[in-house]
Amino acid sequence: MIFSRLIFKTLGLNILLLFCALSSPNALAVIQNQTGNDADKQGGIELYGNNRYSEAADILKQVVKTNKEDYEAWHYLGLSLILKQELKDATKCFETVLRLQPQYAAGHAGLAYVLLLRNKQANAMVEAEMALKIDPQIADAYYIISVIRLRAGARDDALKNAENAIKLRPQLAPPYLLKSEALVSFLGDVPLSTENESAESRNNRYREAAEALEKYLQLNPKAPNKDVWMQQLDSLRFFVSDRNADDRDKTVSGKEVTTKVRVLSKPEPRYTAAARNNQVTGTTILRAVFASDGSVRHILIIKALPDGLTEASIQAARKIKFTPATLNGHPVSMWMELQYNFNLF
Length: 345
Prior knowledge:
The structure is a single chain. The chain has helices at residues 39-49, 53-66, 71-83, 87-100, 105-117, 121-134, 139-151, 155-168, 174-186, 199-219, 226-243, 273-277, 309-318, and strands at 5-9, 18-21, 262-265, 282-290, 296-303, 321-323, 325-327, 330-332, 334-342. It is an alpha+beta fold. It has a domain at 5-182: Tetratricopeptide repeat domain (Serine Threonine Protein Phosphatase 5, Tetratricopeptide repeat), CATH 1.25.40.10. It has a three-stranded antiparallel beta sheet with strand order 5-4-9. α8 packs antiparallel against α9. It is elongated and about 80 Å long.
């Protein structure tokens, strides 16, 4: 089973919701042909495997029109329609697959995937769990569950399911991104000391998150929003190095300064058309360095939302105008948390 690319623009991360690439022709799971070796169908499947989704969909529509019982053709038609962002029609395809083959695990995983893209998370969870009940070796189903659990704030579950997906398919890129997101969001108050976790433990978490993110980028060098994740990787590395910086260079908390940052203007992020269409709501959470030179740097995604809302939040954060914090009369860099709420009215 394969899902070519997530339309989400995360980071379970959520759910980071992020664009994630899941496809390569080599990742297609073997699906037994129950309806004969139809040349048109096989041609459509090959076109899908070569990322020619529109052509694949056109051919496969004709195949299922001729043979309405061909569940394999319905399956690949659904996958092709997802890539064309025709999500409602893709949903109908997978529902047809399961009407024809109720115990077809890949069909349940496909339906879970498209429901997740449509922000129908409860239904997506049911289908993903059914896929695993039938076949516990479907990495994509673990990935879908991880996305849903991370969005719900269940970071332990998200991390566990992301690692299950990695164990089953080590060359599948998106679970590494989810793992990184889960590890970052685990940290709670990122820049400040806490009673429950040592600085060493926090640094180890960040290193592990950076390693997972680096692996994601290695496996998916043409990842959508690659610049966002490269910046996230740089921020993770900065945090660890800044912990070890001397007093002249390191970023301080609000408790350590003489005067705190004074925000002069804070532009609101735009609500993307895709997010409105999919009725995505919630809150993005960022951590950033409000630097001593008046710039916003090292933006770290703590909680993401899909369909471009995370990216919009980052763009808005970079436009914040402020007076830097001071320590003993000198400007200093200070960590701050930023939250952006998105609601449909």
